[in-house]
Design brief:
The structure holds 2 protein chains of 2 kinds.
Chain A: E1 3-10, E2 13-20, E3 27-32, E4 37-43, E5 51-57, E6 61-67, E7 75-77, E8 89-91, E9 97-99, E10 104-110, E11 118-123, E12 126-130, E13 138-139, E14 161-166, E15 174-178, E16 182-186, E17 194-195, E18 216-221, E19 229-233, E20 237-240, E21 247-249, E22 258-264, E23 272-277, E24 292-295, E25 303-305, E26 323-325, E27 333-336, E28 342-345, E29 353-356, E30 362-370
Antiparallel strand pairs in A: 1-2, 1-30, 2-3, 4-5, 5-6, 6-7, 8-9, 10-11, 11-12, 12-13, 14-15, 15-16, 16-17, 18-19, 19-20, 20-21, 22-23, 23-24, 24-25, 26-27, 27-28, 28-29
Chain B: E1 2-5, H1 8-14, E2 19-22, H2 30-40, E3 60-64, E4 67-68, H3 80-83, E5 89-93
Parallel strand pairs in B: 1-5
Antiparallel strand pairs in B: 1-2, 3-4, 3-5
Classes of the chains: A mainly beta, B alpha+beta.
Chain lengths: ~375, ~100
């Protein structure tokens, strides 16, 4: 019987939530790595029992954990992330140049074809790859060494490479999104990269249409349409239909176009989800009402989804990696909050319920659809 | 033989109890004690000292027989009481709320 496994990274550990295809009754296991920040966990698309987790701590630094049994047991694997060659510098808060310094792994993206190959997006922004099941990591330094690198500057949340999108139809193409630099694309498996930001406008940088400097919060793709990407930017919801060459705004009738998450329905490539957040100075839902907004038209026209979500006194945030979808026939949508709730909808967002509600602040949510 | 006491999270990570006993050839220094610790428990590499630079991680301190050796050079000899196992070498995590 089909089932679902939800991988939840929190401020104080990892949790694995499992259910059958009905998605009504959930088993919660964890905390795994109790007390540690788990920025992200993700399973291999070709071997769902192979799961990788980013475990970190301000005291003890970075670890990577690997499970070969669907999250029941874990083993620490390679954790050395050394920038390739000359470290170089980027712009610091005071305008001076500052050396790149590895801080943590924000995001792990397993290969679409090989369970031993994983990409890691890290802070300070760079991308690493392992091809030996995370025993060792090598930087794809063409990204960090892009000629615009010295102009990249961290926002208040750090300069992290937080989204990695792989393209099944173009195996050598990868998109990476970086706060607060923008979106970059490689078409040669990571050797060379270029910004793909045309059409983005950000009023918080001196040149609103600059090539780099945009605080992209999240990008999402449906594998059936790899040239179409959706973006939740610091402000603005955007889309591109030509692999990032040109972006246009699709915020439409959203009550606010600030937010962090964005995702695409598993079976409807023009159905997308965001969770509007009041503003960049008030990181909670407008009016204390937690609402997911869905567009069935690829943006511009949005409808609020509220059934089962708190509509009063709700002041949580939903962080950039904390939304995911399953691929059961009736697509499930999931998101986690900084208040420790994980909400799920088994009907494409029409109705919601919390599947667990008192976890530590949720940093990431990933979903595995199990055969 | 020296004794090393680790913070709780590192004890969990290395699957050890409140203290670890290590044979460290003389002269016993901060660096040689940590090298012996990391050799015995490779999972601890990078958790106390940064990879590559071997610099002490900012939120950890080294205490030995009533002395704070955190800011001393890595080749600082440990006090006799620690080098002969009478007192433990303490790796301490900064206290924090939240």
């Amino acid at each position: 019987m089909s089932g679902v496994r939800v991988l939840v990274g929190t401020h104080k550990g990892a949790f694995v939530l499992t259910s059958d295809g009905a998605r009504k009754k959930w088993d919660v296991s964890g905390p795994h790595f109790a007390g540690w920040e788990i920025y992200h966990l993700k399973g291999s698309p070709v071997d769902p029992d192979r799961i990788y987790a980013s475990q970190c701590s301000g005291w003890f630094g970075q670890l990577i954990q690997r499970s070969n049994d669907g999250g029941k047991t874990w083993e620490p694997v390679g954790k050395e992330f050394t920038y390739d060659g000359a470290t170089g510098t980027h712009q610091w808060y005071d305008g001076t140049q500052h050396p790149w310094e590895f801080k943590r792994v924000w995001h792990l993206e397993p290969s679409l074809t090989d369970p031993d190959t994983v990409y890691a997006g890290v802070e300070d922004a760079a991308i690493f790859r392992t091809t030996d099941g995370a025993q060792s990591w090598q930087e794809l330094s063409g990204l960090r060494c892009h000629e615009s690198g010295p102009r990249w500057a961290p926002g208040a949340g750090g300069m992290g490479a937080h989204t990695i999108l792989l393209d099944r139809s173009h195996p050598d193409r990868i998109f990476v999104a970086i706060s607060a630099a923008g979106v970059f694309r490689t078409d040669d498996a990571g050797k060379t990269w270029r910004p793909v930001t045309k059409g983005l406008r950000s009023l918080y940088i001196p040149d609103p249409a600059a090539e780099v400097g945009h605080c992209v919060h999240r990008i999402a793709m449906h594998q059936s349409r790899p040239d179409t990407l959706f973006m939740q930017k610091h402000w603005d919801v955007m889309r591109t239909d030509d692999g990032g060459e040109n972006w246009r705004e699709v915020s439409g009738n959203l009550p606010t176009d600030f937010g962090f998450v964005i995702d695409v329905h598993a079976h409807e490539p023009e159905t997308i989800y965001v969770v509007p957040i009041k503003s960049d100075s008030e990181h909670f839902p407008p009016d204390g009402k937690l609402q997911v907004f869905r567009s069935r038209t690829g943006g511009d026209e949005w409808e609020p989804l509220t059934k089962g979500l708190p509509q009063a006194d709700c002041y949580v945030n939903i962080l950039r990696d904390a939304m995911a979808v399953d691929s059961l026939d009736s697509c499930g949508v999931y998101f986690g909050t900084t208040g420790g709730q994980v909400y799920a909808s088994a009907d494409s967002g029409d109705t919601w319920s919390p599947i667990v509600r008192d976890l530590p602040a949720v940093l990431s949510v990933e979903v595995q659809t199990l055969a | 033989m020296i004794r090393v006491a680790l913070p709780a999270h590192l004890r969990t990570l290395a699957h050890v109890g409140s203290e670890v006993e290590l044979n460290v050839p003389a002269p016993v220094t901060v660096a040689s004690a940590l090298e012996a610790l990391e050799s015995r428990y490779p999972v601890l590499r990078g958790t106390i000292r940064d990879h590559g630079t071997l610099k002490r991680r900012a939120f950890l301190r080294y205490f030995a027989d009533g002395q704070d050796l955190s800011l001393d050079p890595p080749d600082t000899p440990l006090p006799d009481a620690v080098a002969n196992g009478k007192e433990p070498f303490l790796v301490i995590g900064s206290i924090a709320g939240g």
